[in-house]
Write a structure and sequence with these properties.
Helices cover 60% and strands 10% of the residues. By secondary structure, it is of the alpha/beta class. It folds into 4 domains: 223 residues, Growth Hormone, Chain: A, CATH 1.20.1250; 238 residues, Up-down Bundle (Growth Hormone, Chain: A), CATH 1.20.1250; 45 residues, no CATH class; 294 residues, Rossmann fold (3-Layer(aba) Sandwich), CATH 3.40.50.150. The strands form 4 sheets. It has an 8-stranded mixed sheet, with helices on both faces. A 4-stranded antiparallel sheet has the order 3-4-5-6. Strands 1-2 form a two-stranded antiparallel ribbon.
Amino acid sequence: MSTARANPSSSDPAGRFLPLMLFLFIGSGCAALIYEIVWFQLLSLIVGSSAISMGVLLATFMGGMCIGSLGLAKYVSSRQHPLRVYAMLEAGIGVLGILILFALPYVGGLYTAIGGSGIGGLLFRGLLCAICLLPPTILMGATLPAIARHVETTRSGVAWLGFFYGGNTAGAVLGSLIAGFYLLRVHDMTVATFVAAILNFGVASAAFLLAKVAAYQPAADKAESPAATLPAGVWPVLVTIALSGATALAAEAVWSRLLTLNLGGTVYTFSLILAAFLIGIGLGSGVGSFLSKSIVNPRAALGWCQLLLIAGIAWAAYNLTRALPYWPINPYLSTAPTWTFQIDFVRCLWTVLPSATLWGASFPLALAAIARRDQDPGRLVGMVYAANTVGAIVGALFGSLLVIAWIGTQHAQQLLMGVAAVSALLVLAPAVTEAGKLTVNARSGLVALSTLILALVLGSTVAPVPGLLVAYGRYMATRMYNHGEIIYVGEGMNSSMAVSELSNGVRNYHNAGKVQASSEPQDMKLQRMLGHMTTLIPTSAKSILVIGCGAGVTAGAVSIDPAVETLTIAEIEPLVPRVVSTYFSQYNFDVINNPKTQVHIDDARHFLVTTHEKFDAITSDPFDPWVKGAATLYTREFFELAKRHLNPGGVVTVFVQLYESTEAAVKSEIATFLDAFPNGLVFGNTQDGQGYDLVLVGQVEPTVIDLDALDAKLSRPEYAPIARSFTEIGVYSAVDLFSTYAGNKTTLAGWLADAEVNRDRNLRLQYLAGLGLNLYDQAPIYDNMIASREYPENVFQGSPETLNQLRSAMMWGSR
C-alpha cells in the first residue's frame, strides 16, 4: 500500500521534531545495553559462561532483533502513528525487562530440573534463552522500523534514519559504560534493571507527548504501488550489509580475545572494548548519514566502505600483535585504576575505531542504496536491519564458537579480510542497468583483480599472536628479557594458553595472560595443600569433583589418595586437558590419563546445576576472580549449590589468591564462603614468611581434624605417595600442614565487618577484584587478616604433645 508521511524538511512542522526523536533513540539505546549486560549475567548463572552458552545467548538476543525488524512492517498497520507505536514498544520493553528479572528464577528452576549436557542440553539452553530474550528483543528490533514511518524515503529522510541508528548506538555507549562502571559495580542487577526500565518509560512518555503535536498523515488503504516495491538488483546490497554484520561481530569476538590479553580480562575491559566498538559504529553512522544525503552513488560508497575494511582489519591485526604488546607501558606504575582505564580505553579506540566507523557507515549507505520514493520506510529499514542482524548472528556464532579454535586468530583475521573483499565486490564489480539488472564488464574484472590483490597483500601482513603475549598479557613489555622459553602456545574455544620453561627448569602454565599454575615451590605447595586437604579431611573420599583443571596438580594430588575411586574434573576449555597431560604429567601424576579420572568439558556452575551426582568432596581452583565470569564460582548461591551436592561429612575447599587483588576482594571471597559455611576454616600459604594465597575449607557440620590419626594414616604403605608429595613441598607431618591455620568466622569477624557478600544478583567480587589487577599487596592483606588469629580449641584433636606442637607452630612458625 502507498504511504503518505510527514515530510521531514525544515518547512514541514513535523520535521522540526526529528532532532527530539534522536534523543529518544539515545535513551532507548542506553536502556537496551543495560538490559543486554544484565540479561547475559543473569542467564550465564543458569546456562553457564562457556563460549557455547554465550553464543546461544547472543544468537537468541540478535535473533529477536531480526524478527522484530521484519515483523513490524508486516503486522503493524502504517495507519498507526509511528510515535505512538514506538512509545508502546518502549513501554513494553520496560515491562518485560522487569518481568524477566522476577520470573527468571522460576524459569531457571525448570532448567535445573530438566537441563543437561550434550545436544539435548544445548537445545534446552536455546529454549530457555528464547523464552527469556525473544519477547523484549523482538520489541527492540521493531523500534527503528516503527519510527522510520515518520519520514519519507527521500535522501533527507533516509539520512535521518541513519542519524536515529547512530543515536541509538550513542546511547548504547552510555549504557555499556554506566552499567559496567557504576550500576553493577556499586549496586546490583535489580537496580540496573529498574534504571533501564525507567529510561524506557521516560522515552515512551516523551514519544506519546510528541505524537500529540507531531503531524502524521496515515497511509491510504490500498495496494502498494509498483514504485513502492524493491527494484530488481538490490540483493547484492542486502547480502553486502549481511556480510558487513558478520565481519563486525566475528571481528569483535577475535579482537576481544586479543585485547583482553593486552589489557586483562576484567569486566571493565569488556565494557571498554564494547564502548570503543559502539563509538566507532555511532560515528560511522553519522558520517554515512551525512554522505547519503548528497552522494551520487551510495551503492558504490557502500562498496568502498567494505573495501576499506580490508585495511581496517589489517590495521587492527597489526596493532594487536605487533604494536600494542610492545608499547612501553608498565602496569606497576599505575597509582590508581582510573589511570589504567584511561590508557586502556585509548588503546581500544586506537585499534578498533577505523573498522568500527566503516561498519557504522555501511548501514545508512545501504539504506540509501536501495531506498526509493513511496516505499514504506518501516519495510525498508526492517529489511536492511534484518539482513545486517542475520549476518551478525552468523558472525557472532562463527567467531566465538568455531573460528578461533579451528584456525586461530591470525587466520581468522585473514578470513575476515577475505569476506570483506567479497562484500565489496558484490556492489562494486557489477554494473546496474536502468532496468535494475546486473551486468559484468571489463571494469568489473579490474575491480575484482584489484580487490583480490589488496586482500592478499594486506592479509600477508597479519602476524600470529606472540607467545609472550599469551603468556604474560599486559606485562609482556616488562618480560621481554626475562621470560624463559615459550614451549607451547594454543588458542582454544574459550581462552588462549601457553606453557613456558625457565632456565632453572621451572615450568609455568599460562592462561588469561598470566601464570595460573607452575612448578615454583610456593605454587606447588598451594596446589598440593588444596588437593590433599580435599581428600584427608572428609570422613569419606571416594568421589571427588575438581573445578578447574589448570596444570592438573591439584587434581593429581587428589588422584593419588588410595581412598579415591572416581575423580571428576569440570573444565571449561577443551584444550586444557590435552595441554597439561603433555607438559605437566610429571607434576600432576599424569592425572588426565588416570583410570579414575573423568573430564567433563563444561562450565563448572552449569555442570553442578544440571548433574544429580553427589560427591564426598569438591575442590575449586578456577580463574582469578577478576576474570570476567569467574566470580560466578564464588557467590553465596554457588557455595550453597556445592553444599547440596555433598555427601554427609563432605568438604568443599576453595583457592583464594592474595596477589593481584584488593583487600576488599579478599574479604568478599572469605566472607561469602563463611556465610555459606559458618564452620569454615582458613589456611594460609606463605612465601618467604609473607602471605601469598589461601585455602578455604568448609563442611556443613563442625570440622574436627585428628592430627595423630592423620599421621598414622600417612605412615601406612598405601599412603606413601601422599607422604612423598607432602615431603616435596616441605610438609613432614600433620602439624606442619595445619599450622598454616589463619582463622575462622569468629576470629575474623572484626576484619570482615565491612565485607561485601558476593551474590548472584550483584557479582560484586568481579568488580572489586578487577580494581586490583596490578596490585601486589598480598603481604599487608595477610598481616591484617591474621592480626587477631587465635588457636581454635575445638577443631584439632590429638595427644597433648601433638597439640602443644601445633600451638607452638602457629605462634612461632612462619606466617
